[in-house]
Amino acid sequence: MNFGEELGYWYLRLNGCFPVVDYVLHGGVLMERTSDCDLLAVRPPNVFEEVGGQKSDWDPVIAKLANGRTLGVICEVKTGRYDVKKLFPPNNIAYAVKRLGLIADYDEAISVLQKSASFDSGENIRIAKLFVASGSAKSDRFIFISISHVRDFFRRRFSKYKEVKFRDRHFFPSELIQNIIDELHGTTRLPERNTKIDFG
Q1: Containing domain of residue 42, as a range?
Q2: Is residue 200 part of a domain?
Q3: pTM for the full predicted model
Q4: How many CB atoms are closer than 10 A to CB 29?
Q5: Residue 77: left if φ>0, alpha if ψ -120 to 50, beta else—which one?
Q6: How far apart are CA 145 and CA 153, in angstroms?
Q7: Which residues partner with 76 through β-bridges?
Q8: What does the pLDDT look like over 15-71, one tens digit per residue?
Q9: Measured between alpha carbons, how far is 3 from 1 in angstroms, rounded to an integer?
Protein backbone atom coordinates (compact mmCIF):
# COMPACT_ATOMS: atom_id res chain seq x y z
CA MET A 1 0.00 0.00 0.00
CA ASN A 2 1.11 3.55 -0.64
CA PHE A 3 0.40 6.03 2.16
CA GLY A 4 -2.86 7.20 0.55
CA GLU A 5 -4.21 3.67 0.28
CA GLU A 6 -3.14 3.03 3.86
CA LEU A 7 -5.02 6.14 5.04
CA GLY A 8 -8.08 5.03 3.05
CA TYR A 9 -7.84 1.50 4.42
CA TRP A 10 -7.74 2.64 8.05
CA TYR A 11 -10.44 5.24 7.49
CA LEU A 12 -12.80 2.47 6.32
CA ARG A 13 -11.66 0.01 8.96
CA LEU A 14 -12.12 2.52 11.79
CA ASN A 15 -15.60 3.25 10.44
CA GLY A 16 -16.80 -0.33 10.89
CA CYS A 17 -15.85 -1.73 7.48
CA PHE A 18 -13.98 -4.90 6.61
CA PRO A 19 -11.70 -3.61 3.82
CA VAL A 20 -9.54 -5.43 1.29
CA VAL A 21 -6.71 -3.46 -0.31
CA ASP A 22 -5.45 -3.66 -3.92
CA TYR A 23 -8.01 -6.25 -4.98
CA VAL A 24 -6.91 -7.80 -8.29
CA LEU A 25 -9.42 -7.55 -11.15
CA HIS A 26 -8.29 -10.32 -13.49
CA GLY A 27 -8.22 -9.81 -17.24
CA GLY A 28 -10.40 -12.12 -19.28
CA VAL A 29 -13.96 -11.99 -20.55
CA LEU A 30 -15.04 -8.90 -18.59
CA MET A 31 -11.68 -7.09 -18.46
CA GLU A 32 -9.36 -6.66 -21.44
CA ARG A 33 -6.37 -6.48 -19.14
CA THR A 34 -5.75 -7.11 -15.46
CA SER A 35 -6.39 -4.12 -13.22
CA ASP A 36 -7.03 -3.55 -9.53
CA CYS A 37 -9.39 -1.82 -7.16
CA ASP A 38 -7.60 0.23 -4.50
CA LEU A 39 -10.08 -0.75 -1.78
CA LEU A 40 -13.17 -2.93 -1.56
CA ALA A 41 -15.07 -2.98 1.72
CA VAL A 42 -18.23 -4.26 3.37
CA ARG A 43 -19.83 -2.69 6.44
CA PRO A 44 -22.51 -4.67 8.32
CA PRO A 45 -25.49 -2.65 9.62
CA ASN A 46 -25.10 -3.38 13.34
CA VAL A 47 -21.43 -2.67 13.92
CA PHE A 48 -20.46 -2.10 17.57
CA GLU A 49 -17.26 -2.01 19.60
CA GLU A 50 -16.67 -0.64 23.11
CA VAL A 51 -13.61 1.37 22.07
CA GLY A 52 -14.12 3.33 18.86
CA GLY A 53 -17.17 1.49 17.60
CA GLN A 54 -20.15 3.36 19.02
CA LYS A 55 -22.65 5.55 17.15
CA SER A 56 -20.87 8.77 18.08
CA ASP A 57 -17.55 7.41 16.77
CA TRP A 58 -18.43 7.05 13.09
CA ASP A 59 -17.44 9.71 10.61
CA PRO A 60 -20.62 11.51 9.41
CA VAL A 61 -19.90 10.63 5.76
CA ILE A 62 -19.90 6.88 6.42
CA ALA A 63 -22.70 7.08 8.99
CA LYS A 64 -24.94 8.83 6.46
CA LEU A 65 -24.02 6.39 3.70
CA ALA A 66 -24.68 3.34 5.84
CA ASN A 67 -27.72 4.58 7.80
CA GLY A 68 -28.71 1.11 9.01
CA ARG A 69 -27.94 -0.63 5.72
CA THR A 70 -25.33 -3.17 4.74
CA LEU A 71 -22.82 -1.00 2.88
CA GLY A 72 -20.49 -2.08 0.09
CA VAL A 73 -17.72 0.37 -0.82
CA ILE A 74 -15.72 0.60 -4.05
CA CYS A 75 -12.90 3.03 -3.29
CA GLU A 76 -10.24 4.72 -5.39
CA VAL A 77 -7.35 6.63 -3.80
CA LYS A 78 -5.11 9.20 -5.50
CA THR A 79 -2.25 11.09 -3.89
CA GLY A 80 -1.08 12.92 -7.01
CA ARG A 81 -2.65 14.28 -10.17
CA TYR A 82 -5.70 12.55 -11.62
CA ASP A 83 -8.30 12.86 -14.36
CA VAL A 84 -11.82 12.71 -12.88
CA LYS A 85 -13.16 11.26 -16.15
CA LYS A 86 -10.87 8.22 -15.84
CA LEU A 87 -11.93 7.30 -12.30
CA PHE A 88 -14.04 4.18 -11.77
CA PRO A 89 -13.83 2.59 -15.25
CA PRO A 90 -17.07 0.76 -16.18
CA ASN A 91 -15.51 -2.71 -16.32
CA ASN A 92 -13.88 -2.20 -12.92
CA ILE A 93 -17.25 -1.23 -11.43
CA ALA A 94 -18.93 -4.32 -12.93
CA TYR A 95 -16.20 -6.62 -11.61
CA ALA A 96 -16.24 -5.03 -8.14
CA VAL A 97 -20.04 -5.18 -7.79
CA LYS A 98 -20.01 -8.88 -8.66
CA ARG A 99 -17.11 -9.53 -6.29
CA LEU A 100 -18.79 -7.75 -3.37
CA GLY A 101 -21.61 -10.28 -3.76
CA LEU A 102 -24.16 -8.24 -1.82
CA ILE A 103 -26.97 -8.53 -4.37
CA ALA A 104 -28.06 -11.41 -6.58
CA ASP A 105 -29.36 -9.34 -9.52
CA TYR A 106 -26.37 -7.09 -10.12
CA ASP A 107 -27.16 -5.82 -13.65
CA GLU A 108 -29.22 -2.85 -12.40
CA ALA A 109 -26.61 -1.96 -9.79
CA ILE A 110 -23.84 -1.96 -12.40
CA SER A 111 -25.91 0.21 -14.73
CA VAL A 112 -26.79 2.75 -12.02
CA LEU A 113 -23.23 2.92 -10.66
CA GLN A 114 -21.82 3.80 -14.09
CA LYS A 115 -23.27 7.30 -13.67
CA SER A 116 -24.20 7.61 -9.97
CA ALA A 117 -22.37 7.67 -6.65
CA SER A 118 -24.44 4.89 -5.08
CA PHE A 119 -27.05 2.20 -5.66
CA ASP A 120 -29.73 1.11 -3.19
CA SER A 121 -31.32 -2.32 -3.45
CA GLY A 122 -34.66 -3.37 -2.02
CA GLU A 123 -32.79 -5.62 0.41
CA ASN A 124 -31.60 -2.71 2.57
CA ILE A 125 -28.21 -2.75 0.86
CA ARG A 126 -26.27 0.17 -0.55
CA ILE A 127 -23.19 0.05 -2.77
CA ALA A 128 -21.25 3.32 -2.99
CA LYS A 129 -18.25 4.64 -4.89
CA LEU A 130 -15.82 6.55 -2.69
CA PHE A 131 -12.95 8.69 -3.94
CA VAL A 132 -10.18 9.69 -1.52
CA ALA A 133 -7.64 12.25 -2.72
CA SER A 134 -5.80 15.47 -1.96
CA GLY A 135 -7.53 18.76 -2.64
CA SER A 136 -11.14 18.61 -3.77
CA ALA A 137 -13.18 16.99 -6.51
CA LYS A 138 -16.85 17.32 -7.41
CA SER A 139 -18.88 14.78 -9.34
CA ASP A 140 -22.28 13.10 -9.25
CA ARG A 141 -20.45 9.84 -10.03
CA PHE A 142 -18.76 9.38 -6.63
CA ILE A 143 -18.57 10.57 -3.03
CA PHE A 144 -15.40 12.56 -2.38
CA ILE A 145 -13.40 12.57 0.86
CA SER A 146 -10.18 14.56 1.12
CA ILE A 147 -7.04 13.11 2.65
CA SER A 148 -7.08 16.02 5.12
CA HIS A 149 -10.60 14.96 6.18
CA VAL A 150 -9.31 11.42 6.77
CA ARG A 151 -6.41 12.71 8.88
CA ASP A 152 -8.79 14.92 10.89
CA PHE A 153 -11.02 11.89 11.51
CA PHE A 154 -8.02 9.96 12.87
CA ARG A 155 -7.10 12.83 15.19
CA ARG A 156 -10.65 13.04 16.56
CA ARG A 157 -10.96 9.29 17.06
CA PHE A 158 -7.54 8.78 18.60
CA SER A 159 -7.93 11.85 20.84
CA LYS A 160 -11.28 10.58 22.12
CA TYR A 161 -9.70 7.30 23.23
CA LYS A 162 -6.27 8.77 23.82
CA GLU A 163 -4.99 6.62 26.68
CA VAL A 164 -6.32 3.31 25.37
CA LYS A 165 -5.11 3.92 21.82
CA PHE A 166 -1.67 5.01 23.01
CA ARG A 167 -1.32 1.99 25.28
CA ASP A 168 -2.34 -0.37 22.46
CA ARG A 169 -0.77 1.48 19.49
CA HIS A 170 1.70 -1.29 18.66
CA PHE A 171 -1.17 -3.71 18.07
CA PHE A 172 -2.05 -1.72 14.93
CA PRO A 173 -0.17 -3.40 12.06
CA SER A 174 0.55 0.00 10.55
CA GLU A 175 3.53 2.20 11.32
CA LEU A 176 1.61 5.16 9.91
CA ILE A 177 -1.25 4.72 12.40
CA GLN A 178 1.16 4.02 15.27
CA ASN A 179 2.94 7.28 14.46
CA ILE A 180 -0.29 9.34 14.32
CA ILE A 181 -1.32 7.96 17.73
CA ASP A 182 2.15 8.63 19.13
CA GLU A 183 2.14 12.24 17.86
CA LEU A 184 -1.30 12.90 19.37
CA HIS A 185 -0.09 11.60 22.71
CA GLY A 186 2.77 14.07 22.58
CA THR A 187 5.65 11.63 22.83
CA THR A 188 6.99 12.32 19.33
CA ARG A 189 7.95 15.95 18.88
CA LEU A 190 10.25 17.51 16.31
CA PRO A 191 12.68 20.13 17.63
CA GLU A 192 11.29 23.65 17.44
CA ARG A 193 12.74 25.98 14.81
CA ASN A 194 16.08 27.55 15.83
CA THR A 195 16.61 24.88 18.48
CA LYS A 196 20.30 23.97 18.66
CA ILE A 197 21.04 20.27 18.62
CA ASP A 198 24.29 19.08 20.15
CA PHE A 199 25.71 16.18 18.14
CA GLY A 200 28.57 15.72 20.63
Answers
A1: 3-185
A2: no
A3: 0.84
A4: 6
A5: beta
A6: 11
A7: 131
A8: 999 998 866 655 665 556 655 668 899 999 999 988 888 899 999 999 999 999 999
A9: 6
